[in-house]
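In the laboratory, one determines a bound structure by crystallizing the protein with its ligand and collecting diffraction data. In a computational setting the workflow is compressed into a single prediction: the sequence and the ligand go in, and a structural description comes out. We illustrate the idea with LCLJCK34.
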Amino acid sequence: MNEIRQMLNVYFIMGSQDCPNEKPEEVLRKAMAGGITCFQFREKHPRLHMHQAVELGKRLRAMCKNHSIPFIVNDRVDLALILEADGVHIGQEDLPVQEARKLIGHNRILGVSAKTPAEALAARRDGADYIGVGPMFVTMSKQDAGQAIGPGRITEIRKTVGAEFPIVGIGGIHPQNAKLVLEAGADGVAVISAISRSDSPKTAAQKLKMLIG
Ligand SMILES: Cc1ncc(COP(=O)(O)OP(=O)(O)O)c(N)n1
Ligand SMILES: Cc1ncsc1CCOP(=O)(O)O
Ligand SMILES: [Mg+2]
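The predicted complex, in structure-token form:
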């Protein structure tokens, strides 16, 4: 459990839609140089052919392997298995948690999105290894994220699932507000734009890393 909590410290999420000015490989290279502790391949580009997603995923996966950074695939268990990912992240509208667990087995990490204490408890019961709670703040990276729920929700969920269960906050987090999320009880922060759209992805990752106690 502690290993997963550490892995969540600086959790970088990205797909080609998040990199308008630079190749995703280049952004990931800089983020890794800044000390990210986990990477999620979240490919949502409406015009990217699945074949291209597999090819991009293979390149990003190889980079993570070379730097010993856990590689998680968003939404798709099939893609996670193809890429020999370390895990999968699913939301409330994706596969049921128990079914995803059956497909990936017990040697891969399963992350689940939860907005409420009830969703968090259900995710833990059904086999999640960690939960992603958000959006903490307003986000431009996910159109259907819904209203910000704020760091206070992490405190509520932390009380419900206990001190040890791995929790990462997500949504609108950047170096200036990340402390609020960590102080509320999260083990780490998951970010897209704070790193992928920064002038310096490396510095942005370093700044987030410095906030971890
Ligand atoms: C770490 C983490 N937390 C939450 C999410 C959101 O997942 P989901 O609700 O399924 O939304 P999409 O990312 O699929 O748009 C996440 N991806 N990662
Ligand atoms: C995937 C996701 N889930 C909830 S908010 C969000 C987007 C996070 O992106 P950003 O860090 O740019 O706000
Ligand atoms: Mg999803």
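The pocket of magnesium ion (ligand 3) is lined by residues 74-75, 90-91, 94 (CB under 6 Å). Keep in mind that any predicted model is a hypothesis to be tested, not a measurement.
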